[in-house]
Amino acid sequence: MSEGARLPTAAGRGRRPARARGDDRELLILETAERLLEERPLGAISVDDLARGAGISRPTFYFYFPSKDAVLLTLLDRVVAEADATMTAVFDGSVTAPREGWQRALAAYHGTFRDHRALTVAWAEARATNAEVRALWAEVFERWVQRCATVIEAERARGAAPPGPAARDLAIALTSMNERVISASLSGDGPAIAPDDVVPVMLRVWLNAVYGTPPD
Amino acid sequence: MSEGARLPTAAGRGRRPARARGDDRELLILETAERLLEERPLGAISVDDLARGAGISRPTFYFYFPSKDAVLLTLLDRVVAEADATMTAVFDGSVTAPREGWQRALAAYHGTFRDHRALTVAWAEARATNAEVRALWAEVFERWVQRCATVIEAERARGAAPPGPAARDLAIALTSMNERVISASLSGDGPAIAPDDVVPVMLRVWLNAVYGTPPD
DNA sequence: CGAACGAGTCAACAGGGTGTCGAGTCACGG
DNA sequence: CCGTGACTCGACACCCTGTTGACTCGTTCG
Q: What is B29-80 written as a DSSP string?
């Protein structure tokens, strides 16, 4: 099917369409993966499904990716980049009140994952069995923890927050909460907080944990 | 191997050793599973491993359990029963101070899972792919949430705790934190809180979330 | 032009896992 | 001794993964 399409892409720019076909296929595989993940869990998607979805045979799939998980990893790298950008913007943005700063950070965190529901759920699933996925998550988690720990220490230093457990431990505990609460809310199994209440509830716990009775 | 063993068990009691052999085998499979889980993750254990570990062939395994996950489920049922017993004891026990009550509850929660590290990690892994495991966990989680929500409401009613987010939402958020923090601490991948600090840190977050600046 | 090359492609295979079927064995109770 | 029910497993059907080797087809270069 679609045999007639003979690299009409980027024709005007001329000069060597090298790997034009290949890039298309790669993209198609990624899109197929994202599409299939919307309708069923990662475990129910085979390499053959991805290959056929992209109009190629299974062996050809392996020409582009070393495994099914590698496709997921590529997809996740994008989300990670997006999340990092958002996170940096939020942490560097001007904060008038502490409450507002934390609120914005939590909303950004929540928003990023909510915008990629299927991917987030698949991520959680793959983390259980794939070491690379686990490592990628650990990396993201660690960055978030460090930023939060830094802020908590700053708040303590300027006397806005009382002393307490090691800032890092507190950050780990609270970030763990975020992760699990959001994951449960998105995957929909088990008791979960209603989507619209996720951020307010988390915010409340964060503020209490960092400041005791919250400011304002 | 061990062919010579000809049901010498329960010989004195006489009268039909019906299913004596079978019960042994079933037990042996469960023990094998628990033993193998100490040394490698669930995904790296095949039905054949379980069967050979119990000295039987793969088809015979299916006489006792419908699948590998069913073995895990049986193992988990025991832990759940134990956890429920502990939990009930803790919640019904006399509490002199609120702080002490929560501290005891969190320590019990943490202790139950720490005492079954391998099983807890396997549980988390299986939850990603198996609906029954997910359902069992949801049940346990829900019971814990309800008990906590009830206590939070009682504390608010008697004026010990200030109003805040729906008690149930707060309970879900905090229980989610427990789950993830303990799971990370036991599985050892990614940033985690040191084992001995898990309960103190969680306690601090719980008290702040429920009471604002904690009592005492 | 024609050989050489590299990207892209896939049928066929090897290997490992799951779950099932049917034909057994064996110890009792009638 | 003959059934019956617990128990056992060789062999099979299937599904999935990852690899191999041959093949097509543009491009490039002598």
A: HHHHHHHHHHHS-GGG--HHHHHHHTTS-HHHHHHH-SSHHHHHHHHHHHHH
Q: What residues contact residue A192 under an 8 Å CB cut-off, 6+ apart? A: A181, A184, A185, B172
How many angstroms separate the CA atoms of B163 and B170, rounded?
11
Q: Is B189 strand, coil or helix?
A: coil
The answer to whether B120 and B78 have CB atoms below 8 angstroms apart is no
Tokens 């309960």 label which residue? B199
Chain A residues whose beta carbon lies within 8 Å of the beta carbon of residue B127: 128
Amino acid at A160: A
User: Chain A residues with CB inside 8 Å of B184's CB?
Assistant: 172, 176
pLDDT tens per residue across span B7-62: 333 333 544 455 667 688 999 999 999 999 999 999 999 999 999 999 999 999 99
For A123, nearest residue in chain B (alpha carbons): B128
pLDDT for A14 equals 42
Predicted confidence at residue A1, as pLDDT, reads 36
CB atoms A193 and B212 under 8 Å: no
DSSP sequence for A70-112: HHHHHHHHHHHHHHHHHHHHHHHS--SSHHHHHHHHHHHHHHH
Q: What are B29's two structure tokens?
A: 């499979």
Length of chain A: 216
Say if the Cβ atoms of B205 and A134 lie within 8 Å: no
User: Which regions of chain A are under pLDDT 50?
Assistant: 1-17
At B5 the pLDDT is 33
Residue-level pLDDT at B8: 38
Alpha-helical runs (H) found in B93-130:
98-114, 117-127
Q: How many CB pairs under 8 A join A and B?
A: 131
Residue B56: CB partners within 8 Å, gap ≥ 6? B25
Query: CB distance B208–A208 less than 8 Å?
Result: yes
pLDDT of residue B170: 98
CA distances from A84 to A53, A134, A172 (A): 31, 17, 18
Residues A176/B177, Cβ–Cβ less than 8 Å: yes
**Protein CB footprint (7 Å) on chain C nucleotides:** 7-12, 16-22, 27-29
Name which of B177, B191, B119 is nearest A143 in CA terms: B191
Cα A73 to Cα A18: distance, rounded to the nearest angstrom? 25
**What token pair was written down for B216?**
């005492």
pLDDT at residue B133 greater than cutoff 50: yes
